[in-house]
Amino acid sequence: MAGSGVRVRLLEAKPDLLHFSFKTLGSFLEPEKYGFSRKIVASELTSMVFHSRWIHTRKHGPARILDKAQVHRELLEKCQSNGVDVLAGTSIKNVRQDPDGQLTGVIDQHGTEHTARLYVDCSGGKAVLTHRYGLMDKHPQFALGVEYNVRYKDRQDCAHLFYGENFREGYGWIFPLGGERAIVGFGSLQQKPAGMSLRQFFERILALPVITNLIEKDNDDIQGGAFPISDVKTKFFSGNVVGIGDSVSQGSPLLGEGYRFILEAASIAAPHLISYLANGDQQDLQRYEREWNDTYAQLFHRHKRLQRLALRGSRNDLLADTLSLMMKTKRSKTFGKLISGDITSSALWFP
Ligand SMILES: Cc1cc2nc3c(=O)[nH]c(=O)nc-3n(C[C@H](O)[C@H](O)[C@H](O)COP(=O)(O)OP(=O)(O)OC[C@H]3O[C@@H](n4cnc5c(N)ncnc54)[C@H](O)[C@@H]3O)c2cc1C
Asked: Is-above-0.90 flag for pTM?
């Protein structure tokens, strides 16, 4: 948007924009499509192993583990070269509205008010504006993820996914980062899976032979984050407030892949937001909403249904092994489609 001549101010709570509370970033996104360099790719995968209790399925196909800091470095460079006014260490605490409820300003922790004609909420799960405007649940549900950066013993072009009762209420992953390092992580739909803290449960997972055969944990620097798993959202604006990203739950509900879907949503939104700023016509905001819905709403509802089924499988090894067996019968191309969230009936029911 800034590149098209729109004056953009980015208000970010973190003082350091390249500091993250977690670094897992597996993705099917094509770097070139969004103007990234190949430097964002930490590991180019050629295969993935899907582990349930008794069945271990190796499938071949391309996917990527991205270097999160490099992704954000390149996004930031783009913002700066296009003249975005980036204000780090600026946390939005309050808002000002006119009597009609239209947003007229956002107020940071120092009491400074920032005014604009359009406010885009990209605050992730915090949903700083979207929850006030009914675009996000007041108390959204979150999946929680925890991870360690560890020594990796397997091939750098192979990732692992884990599923079943040992990973109750969620799933585990090992994503190679290059240089014999990997991220091992566990994402849970419960804060206390199996009645213990998430961290205790994760430590138990890390002691499983299926994990210790692949990694060696050599530090205690645990990281983590939260991912909204609310029902599929289909409304993305109210007055002059627009939501993009986790603030309106635009990451895939199935595997939690956020970046590719959120960059797509942003690409859909940008031309309509530019047009809105030129004309002040609310129909432009509706066009963003409509285009996203036409492209993703049906798919996201399907992801949501499969997420519920997957949750049941995570509580029952027999069901997990059955789902795993189904995966085993798939050709690599179909497996790749399913794992990247491209879920069609034919991919589900045929090899
Ligand atoms: C453990 C875990 C693993 C994941 N793994 C993957 C993966 O492998 N692949 C993938 O594609 N996705 C993954 N995701 C999902 C992905 O991280 C998110 O979908 C994505 O980060 C959401 O982007 P966003 O820009 O909407 O929000 P965020 O990345 O959450 O960014 C929101 C920003 O808003 C700032 N902010 C918040 N409140 C305020 C405020 N009051 N004032 C100013 N600024 C504020 C925050 O500091 C933050 O920088 C994972 C998520 C988790 C939790």
From this structure: yes
